[in-house]
Write a structure and sequence with these properties.
single chain; mainly alpha; 19 helices; 70% helix
Length: 412
Amino acid sequence: MSEETAQRAREAAESVYRNESRRVFATLVRLLGDFDVAEEALHDAFRAALEQWPREGVPANPRAWLVSAGRFKAIDGIRRRARFTAMEDVADLVEAIPDESAPWDAESIEDDRLRLIFTCSHPSLSPDAQVALTLREVCGLTTEEIAQAFLSAAPTLAQRIVRAKAKIRDARIPYQVPTPDELPERLDSVLRVVYLVFNEGYSASSGRSLTRVDLSAEAIRVGRLLVELLPEPEAMGLLALMLLQESRRAARTAPNGDLILLEQQDRSLWNRAQIAEGSALLQRALGSRRFGPYTIQAAIAAVHADAPTADATDWSEIVGLYDVLLRIESSPVIELNRAVAVAMRDGAEAGLALIDAILDRDYHLAHAARADLSRRLGRSADARVSYERALALARQEPERRFLERRLAELSK
């Protein structure tokens, strides 16, 4: 094999790792029955791919090859540890690992990633553990990224994940999609997981890019599966919300990656097909009269989507929807978003008073919003302090560049 062909094989292995590693991992969890064993097998399989594919060529089905390689690597690991284990136990362990001969159907409702999501959101785990474990094991987020989503400390999240995996192992929690009778009570935690995954993709907690397309696309894919599996109003509402938000992706950043605020976006770039699909789902969810917070957030996103220009936005309707949302689910993020909407409806002074009431938390967007309203009111000193505080807390580079530009503008 030529060096050029070998290089292409290495690049193919790296591409598969970026795009498929969590899918391979999900299948290995099903086969091996243990998160840590599956993680080790995953890395062993990709190491084997980097060694063999440049020499032997990329297989016709790279994902199936990796699953098979990971399975055999796990069996080899069990046998290597045989000197510490009675031989009959080793034979039982190897026998318990099923052969993966059936084709993998990425669109199947019974797909391994959906199984893994329901396993990670099992009711025997605490709600925070469900979300943290799914973000880590299903989506591959780092502990630091999850901590940012939780507004929590990374060591605390790490321990939460370790304890959750131990509980799944010790309690022998099954790796399966729940039965139809069990699904409704299990859905809330799954929707919360998908929502946080989408949020991390829509506005990455850290890094060079504003968004992570892989995560938001995965959240939408799982959202579609959930609507097909269980077309409950809130599942439809969440999918509607994700589609309506995702429709603005192309307009949210400049060619150099800089952040573009909603009121300055070129609305001709908004994806009208996603808006239409999201709006149709929203109407189905609202028609049921059994909707919840995701559907209300989708309704807020739809008001933005319906406005032909920023000036035409119906801020009174948005404030009213936030009032309803706060009665159902109060949080600092929702309070901040309502405060900004009030500022757009009633003026910067009204919004600033509301924001000042929620600044007891190190939430960089609250400080950034306070800075912007102070700037609009001509209070440059207050704006500078708030921009500097927001900049100290922000971890995403496009946001940091935006805040730096605002600070520079105050000095002119």
